[in-house]
Specification:
mainly alpha; DNA polymerase, domain 1
Length: about 120
């Protein structure tokens, strides 16, 4: 990847450790760049974090000396990238309204049509 600019978000699962470092700089978490590099955190690792158990999350936070707020920022930014990737690939669907909310029948029907047309 080009070292002058951050890596492309749609390719985050193939990011190298260096790409992850550039991305950390972009999302204002550059202070973790070196520790992520030392721990070999690449795009594949970041992608797998969504499957981490609570114990694995806590171990990662300790190993990288992360503050909770920074870890939450990291997770939010990862979610933003994953959502963008899914939308670009046509895999994302709009969230269905909560069951306890009054649902407009036209809105519900429109949602069902959109989702079923993707199958």
């Amino acid at each position: 990847m080009n070292k002058e600019r951050p890596p492309e978000p749609l390719d985050f699962f193939i990011w190298t450790v260096e790409d992850v470092g550039l991305w950390l700089e972009e999302i204002n978490l550059g202070s973790y760049r070196q520790i992520f590099k030392e721990n070999g955190v690449n795009g594949e690792y970041l992608e797998g974090m969504s499957m981490f158990t609570t114990e694995q999350i806590l171990r990662f936070i300790r190993r990288c000396h992360m503050k909770w707020g920074d870890f939450i920022t990291l997770c939010k930014e990862l979610r933003r990238i994953k959502d963008k990737t899914d939308l670009e690939e046509g895999k994302a669907y709009p969230p269905y309204p909560d069951d306890d909310r009054n649902i407009n029948p036209d809105e519900a029907f429109s949602y069902i049509v959109r989702v079923s047309s993707r199958s």
